[in-house]
Automatic annotation (TrEMBL):
It comes from the Eukaryota. This is Glycoside hydrolase family 16 protein. One of its GO terms (biological process) is glucan catabolic process. It comes from Lentinula edodes. Residues 1-17 form the signal peptide. InterPro entries: Beta-glucanase-like (IPR000757), ConA-like_dom_sf (IPR013320), Glycosyl_Hydrlase_16 (IPR050546). Keywords: Hydrolase, Signal. GO terms for molecular function: hydrolase activity, hydrolyzing O-glycosyl compounds. The keyword Cytoplasm does not apply. Residues 46-336 form the GH16 domain.
Length: 336
């Protein structure tokens, strides 16, 4: 099904391109081969790396009150940089950290960072390469995209979890009439299971539709122990698909900046038009990277995700945040 639709879509273009000199039979075989592996229809649009993440014309630092009620003080760009919470290493890696030097009293807020692109997107292919991601009790890291007028223009959570989770959760939030069809569970990677079918979200019912990737390399300490890896999100009007590749499994077409999702095999998450009109539910998304501290999900899942005591007490001790940092290689966006 997946292969067939890619094949049908690419055939007319390939046929046109070879119209003058090749027979249909040759075109047909070429198209099939191209559709599967050799041709990327995607062209690089943005390549964020190193100082890009600290460039205010490309990414902005959110420093308002946390909408999810965390014990967090999101920092401005200048404060984050002067406090050593956002910087570029000599090797070009961008680090976004939670403060792990300040001792607080229980209930006080800890400094952290939340950045978002100035540019908004209406689809495309998004490739994010991280060497490490935050984990630890009281942390709630996420890499996600979101539109205005939440939930009507949607939210796509590519990496998200809390505390000592050993699995990633991939989620959509949307306005009314959007869900996952349960039959999609047979079209995703063997490590992925559906967690919740309903994407429609509201302030009082905000689970979203979810897949859980049970590959222990997909999140937290397990992710970091492998040197991280790549998350890819392919968003068009037919479907939103997401893949995870641990460091050693990154396809060469990604590294070569000629990505061809049809060659990557089953995704970790698949949301399709069958039960959600993707085109009308998701628009004008900015990309966001943040590490929240306590707040909603972190606290409700505190003991079930491996932590003891209270979240507020955990926040007070800075040594609990030694692993609470993103190490970003790059984020690339592509358009077809
Ligand atoms: C396409 O790529 C997949 C995964 O990389 C590989 O297993 C398969 O043999 C390739 N197919 C062709 C036709 O090259
Ligand atoms: C910030 O990004 C803009 C847009 O790409 C670029 O023109 C500018 O030179 C960058 N600034 C710095 C200091 O690199
Ligand atoms: C599932 O995860 C394990 C590691 O936890 C990995 O070895 C395996 O390749 C994964 N399978 C798929 C289909 O991705
Ligand atoms: C904060 O965390 C970093 C990274 O793990 C570590 O190198 C540093 O020593 C920690 N700071 C303190 C004061 O322990």
């Amino acid at each position: 099904m997946h292969f067939l639709s890619g094949f049908l879509l690419s055939l007319p273009l390939a046929s046109l391109a070879g119209h003058k000199s090749r027979s249909f039979g040759q075109n047909h075989r070429r198209a099939a081969l191209k559709a599967r592996n050799t041709t990327s229809t995607y062209v690089l649009e943005d390549y964020y790396q190193g100082q890009s993440f600290l460039n205010s014309s490309l990414w902005t630092f959110f420093d308002d009150t946390d909408p999810t009620a965390g014990l967090v003080n999101y920092q401005s760009s200048s404060d984050a940089q002067s406090k050593g919470l956002a910087y570029v290493q000599d090797d070009g890696t961008t680090v976004l950290a939670v403060d792990n030097t300040t001792t607080l009293t229980s209930g006080q807020y800890r400094d952290s960072v939340r950045i978002a692109t100035t540019k908004s997107y209406n689809g495309g292919l998004f490739i994010a390469d991280f060497y490490a991601m935050p984990y630890g009790c009281a942390t709630w890291p996420a890499f996600w995209s979101v539109g205005p007028n939440w939930p009507d223009q949607g939210e796509i959570d590519i990496i998200e979890g809390v505390n000592l989770n050993t699995h990633n959760q991939l989620t959509l939030h949307s306005g009314a009439d959007c869900a996952i069809e349960s039959t999609l569970s047979s079209l995703v990677s063997g490590n992925s299971t559906i967690g919740n079918l309903q994407c429609a979200s509201s302030a009082s019912s905000n689970t979203g539709c979810t897949y859980i990737d049970n590959d222990a390399r997909s999140y937290g300490q397990g992710f970091n122990q492998q040197g991280g890896g790549v998350y890819a999100m392919d968003w068009n009007t037919d479907a939103i698909k997401m893949w995870f590749f641990s460091r050693d499994d990154i396809p060469s077409d990604i590294t070569e900046k000629s990505p061809n999702p049809s060659s990557w095999g089953e995704p970790a998450a698949l949301f399709s038009n069958s039960a959600c009109d993707i085109g009308s539910h998701f628009s004008e998304h900015t990309l966001t990277i943040n590490t929240d501290v306590c707040g909603g999900w972190t606290e409700s899942a505190f003991s079930s995700s491996g932590c003891s005591g209270t979240c507020a007490d955990t926040v007070a001790d800075p040594s609990n945040f030694d692993n609470a940092r993103w190490k970003i290689n790059y984020i690339a966006t592509y358009q077809s």
